[in-house]
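My main concern about presentation is that the manuscript never shows what a single data entry looks like. In essence, backbone conformation is discretised, so a fold becomes a row of integers matching the chain in length. An entry of this sort, consisting of the sequence and the corresponding backbone structure tokens, reads as follows:
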Amino acid sequence: MMRRPLSVCWLLAIAAVAAESDPLFRIREDRKIGFIDRTGKVVIVPKFETAEDFYDGLARVYVGAEAGFIDRSGKFVIKPVYATATNFENGRSLVSRDGKYSLIDKQGNTVAEIPYRVLGEFHAGLATVQRPRATDAGGKPIPAAYGYIDRAGKMVIEPRFMPAGAFPDDGRGLAVGGLNREWVYFDRTGKIILRLPMEGRDRADAFQDGLLRWKEGFYWGYRNAAGEWAIEARYDAASDFKDGLARVELDGKWVWIDRSGRQVDAPLRERVGNTAEGLTLYREGDRLGYLKADGAAAFPFRRYQEARDFSCGLARIKLDGRFGFLDSAGNLKLPNVYASAGDFTNCLAMVLTKYGFAYIDPEGKVVWQQKAKE
């Protein structure tokens, strides 16, 4: 919910354009932000000091230190009166004003008052809130604590943990928090499933890939979200699961296991990207490449300095210090001539040329170019 300053991170932020049916794209001129459409036509003249992308049909903008929301014409539909605000999602935004938090709809109406400080955004449908330290009517101290609200702003887990983490976004695990000098793992109702003494543990592991590393006596194993052993503790050491595999030490040797605990051959490649347009980015030693759904390489692995997922038929790569774009056959469709570049999002990508920032289409055509400084 923090306001993000306009800085050299501008190009990276552009890569996060919301997936809208008729998207608008941020531009910057004379230190002001506006928006263009996919053709490069200026739809909202640059006039905002700070503005985010459109989500759910509205964009969050700041006037001074206060946030509000504009529609696609650039008109404020929710006045800039909030100290903090999240992007709209499913017609709702978490906001704060004068130290008070609430959930609002797209007309700016209050859906729910939230009696505690909201920490961050929703994860797996729940957002963390903090009850501040206070005293009761009799002067007895009430400690600070963390709880959770749902997307309707309803308190579903009353504050009692200190500290507390977010629920896994994949919905396959438990959240972890501190309670009575224990690390406790709890479900979405607040029911505690697992407990660990805090003594000697500055932090507690989180669920990864739906499983939790767990040490019992001398050995490591893995528990599931029901608190049961998914893989019995028998390993001298263990790593977190990723993509259904984990590396463990057994009888002095490191081996790989799957989610059933069955030993498998060591993977030749490590997944480092997401599956997009039927291709997934993998690393093999010092090379990067893309695998098809059947596990075959789409084209030879190569030594790219950087590589990203496919979007609009192209994947951004960095080669010899410059950025270009590959097509799905591995050809360098757009040569590596850009000093900096973002991924294609809604089939436009922002790049940095010798003339300044520009948007290009998948054919490399410039649809918008930043004005040259006089």
